[in-house]
């Protein structure tokens, strides 16, 4: 191992160590990369490279898609769309075993079409759905597991914030990634709902049916679905506009943010200045944090390029006489293990610049691969010992909820996720057929 590669390996070890100690992700990337470039070259070169990275990472129109969709999600969360989706689907599913959990699954999927953050989705539904489930006598682990795992849909269903980061790190099309996530996201929501129904029917103590649900008439069920028209309209305009070629991803983000703002004003919540200001503040904080992470990750990836680790790894894997599925499997296992220890944004920011070109060279479709990686992100998001969705839910659901309560409830849903992952491997067209039909 030469000097450059040795420094690169040492930097990766230092990076993981600092992340495990709790240092901020962006600061860790910048600090380790700056020290590494200084060792390999000199301090002046490190300062010059970080300055050039800060400019080139942000000074491109493509990056405006991120703050626009973040703003759309902030307006949606402040406008009460999650509560609207949850209550409408719950009423439509009344008397069905596990109806509140099913409402959480499909309500999360509906809310995800206008909010691209899985953490926000899990925390919002934790405040809405968990007290309601407990009031109806639902088993605590069953309730928490359904909320935590349903919250991961926002990572897959467009407009997904993580897909935007994927597009930035891999230079793939944001619009094509959005289209690729629709079928896997809806499929996961459906598999979850079927699992909830079967478990609640087999064991009614998990999810008792209340007297209130027995009073809901068929006409009231249909009328309840009408409460989703605003979400359906926004999702159709934004996603349908991109699919039909009417909007670029950036234009769709602007249209979505404006539409969500107008509905929030019309419905009332955003007329209160405190709610409006809070949505803008949250949007600005999230955007600034993500841009900071992007700059740090790109700077670190340039340092890794200097260390020759990506080149050496590519040469090794290309000379390794095993099936490409073995290499892909090792990459996915590595991601899962890293995702159990550090946040997913850090995992992908660290690994995608290195591993994505290797996977594409092995012949895998880049859009399909990004969706598979996102599925692993969903599973890691609720897996111990990190599982950010689990921690987010535990922090918002109530004082009686601990993170271990959440972990006990997620295992059946992780098994569902693994089943969906297998389907995506066996039938790649589930991912690729919508992007391939897109009008450019």
TrEMBL record:
It is found in: Cell inner membrane. Pfam families: DctM. Keywords: Cell inner membrane, Cell membrane, Membrane, Transmembrane, Transmembrane helix, Transport. The keyword Transmembrane helix applies. It is a multi-pass membrane protein. GO terms for molecular function: transmembrane transporter activity. InterPro entries: DctM, TRAP_DctM. This is TRAP transporter, DctM subunit. Part of the tripartite ATP-independent periplasmic (TRAP) transport system. Residues 12-430 form the TRAP C4-dicarboxylate transport system permease DctM subunit domain. One of its GO terms (cellular component) is plasma membrane. The chain crosses the membrane at residues 12-41, 62-82, 142-169, 175-198, 227-246, 282-304, 324-343, 350-374, 410-434. Its main location: membrane.
């Amino acid at each position: 191992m030469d000097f450059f590669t040795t420094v690169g390996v040492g930097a990766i070890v230092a990076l993981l160590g600092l992340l495990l100690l709790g240092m901020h992700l962006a600061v860790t990337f910048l600090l380790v990369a700056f020290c590494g470039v200084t060792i390999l070259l000199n301090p002046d070169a490190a300062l010059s490279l970080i300055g050039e990275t800060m400019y080139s990472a942000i000074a491109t129109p493509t990056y405006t898609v991120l703050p626009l969709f973040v703003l759309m999600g902030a307006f949606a969360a402040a406008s009460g769309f999650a509560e609207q989706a949850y209550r409408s689907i719950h009423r439509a599913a009344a008397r069905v075993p596990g109806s509140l959990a099913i409402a959480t699954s499909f309500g999360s999927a509906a809310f995800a079409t206008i909010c691209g953050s899985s953490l926000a989705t899990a925390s919002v539904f934790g405040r809405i759905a968990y007290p309601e489930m407990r009031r109806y006598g639902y088993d605590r682990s069953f309730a928490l597991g359904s909320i935590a795992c349903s919250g991961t849909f926002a990572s897959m269903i467009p407009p997904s914030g993580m897909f935007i980061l994927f597009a930035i790190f891999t230079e793939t099309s944001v619009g094509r990634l959005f289209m690729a996530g629709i079928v896997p996201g809806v499929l996961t929501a459906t598999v979850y709902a079927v699992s909830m129904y079967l478990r609640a029917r087999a064991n009614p103590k998990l999810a008792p049916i209340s007297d209130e649900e027995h009073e809901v008439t068929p006409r009231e069920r249909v009328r309840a679905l009408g409460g989703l028209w605003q979400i359906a309209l926004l999702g159709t305009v934004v996603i349908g506009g991109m699919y039909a070629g009417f909007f670029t991803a950036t234009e769709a983000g602007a249209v979505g943010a404006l539409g969500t703002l107008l509905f929030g004003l019309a419905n009332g919540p955003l007329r209160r200045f405190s709610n409006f200001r809070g949505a803008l503040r949250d949007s600005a904080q999230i955007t600034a944090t993500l841009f900071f992470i992007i700059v740090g990750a790109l700077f670190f990836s340039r340092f890794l390029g200097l260390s020759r680790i990506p080149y050496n790894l590519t040469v090794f894997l290309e000379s390794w006489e095993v099936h490409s599925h073995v290499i892909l499997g090792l990459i996915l296992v590595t991601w899962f293990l890293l995702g159990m220890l550090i946040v997913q944004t850090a995992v992908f920011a660290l690994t995608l610049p290195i591993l994505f070109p290797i996977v594409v060279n092995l012949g895998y479709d880049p859009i399909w691969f990004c969706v598979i990686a996102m599925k692993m992100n969903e599973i890691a998001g609720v897996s111990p010992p990190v599982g950010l969705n689990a921690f987010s839910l535990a922090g918002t659901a109530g004082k009686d909820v601990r993170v271990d309560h959440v972990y006990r409830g997620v295992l059946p849903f992780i098994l569902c996720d693994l089943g969906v992952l297998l389907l995506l491997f066996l039938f790649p067209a589930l991912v690729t057929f919508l992007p391939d039909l897109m009008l450019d």
